[in-house]
Amino acid sequence: MDLRMLRKIKGYIMLFLSTLAAIIGVVLLFAILYKVIMAGIDGLSLNLFTKDEAPAFLHETGGLRHAFVGQLILTAIASLIGIPIGILGGIYLSEYAYNSKIGRFLSSLADVSISIPTIIIGTFIYAILVRPLGHFNGWAGAVALSVILIPIVMRTTEESLKLIPWQLRESALALGTPVYKVIKDIVIKSALTGIFTGVSLAVARIAGETAPLLFTSFSKNTLSFNMNEPVASLTVSIFTYASSAFESWITLAWAAALVITVFILITNIILKQIMKRRSY
After folding, report:
1. What is the mean pLDDT of each run of 10 residues along the chain (280 residues)?
2. What is the rounded (10 degree) CA torsion for 201, 203, 208, 212?
């Protein structure tokens, strides 16, 4: 068997394995979506979004308004903290620390941070922002989510910027353009779609986190905007309700899981369409 034939066989094998993995992934994804839709559609009602938690033993129809609002607040504050830091860090790694020891160290550190279990991050934030204060609080939850967000945004920004040819930078610099303008007006604009996609995926990641919030913002069964005290979150409420013995709470947990899944899915589709139109 000659070398060309051997390469073809290897190529066909890898193509088959890649296709099989893609099919398995898609099938599992649709199986999860089907289960969430079928189990959660019964719990959808206006009360889910307009009422707070009701004690199950009173047989009242409660809702998760407090959890939806709390989740939005925590995710928004975490995004405001983490996205700028992550993008600026990615710009530094790609444009200023490219191929340097400090750049390689920070990139490796970001990769390690991404793979750290989020419950470890939750316990770390608990040690520095919860225990010294003596009580759970919303700020600690937002900071924990931002710590998860930063390395993801940093690495996706770095990789998106590295895809821009260096010849483009050199051409602009040869014309006398300052470095910061080259980065701001040429490199970042060219990589904006990739950066935006990475940011949206990172936000979707933290929007579904539960473990770090159990150690930081904890939970609350009423609507609250005070970040200095425990704040309700949708993911923690889903965990609490799903593990309860009350059928009404379990139904609400499935309904909340359906809402957050559909919300993240629709948000990502809309953002991708916006960025696709901007790229034309």
Report:
1. 80 92 94 91 88 70 87 95 95 89 90 90 94 93 95 93 88 87 89 87 89 91 90 91 85 90 83 68
2. 120
Amino acid found at 56: A
8 A C-beta contact, residue 218 and residue 136: yes
Report the distance separating Cα 82 and Cα 76, nearest Å.
10
Contact 5, 13 (CB under 8 A): no
How many Cβ atoms are within 10 Å of 157's Cβ, its own excluded?
Answer: 28
Quickly name the fold that domain 50-279 has: MetI-like fold (1.10.3720)
Q: Which residues contact 246 (CB under 8 A, 6 or more apart)?
A: 56, 57
Residues near 250 by beta carbon (within 8 Å), at least 6 away in sequence: 241, 242, 244
Dihedral sign of CA atoms 125, 129, 131, 137 in order: negative
CA–CA gap between residue 157 and residue 186 (Å, rounded)? 15
Kindly state the DSSP code that residue 21 receives in the 8-state scheme: H
Residue with tokens 């073809």: 8
Nearest to 48 by CA among 68, 72, 71, 22: 68
In angstroms, the CA 149 to CA 202 distance is 6
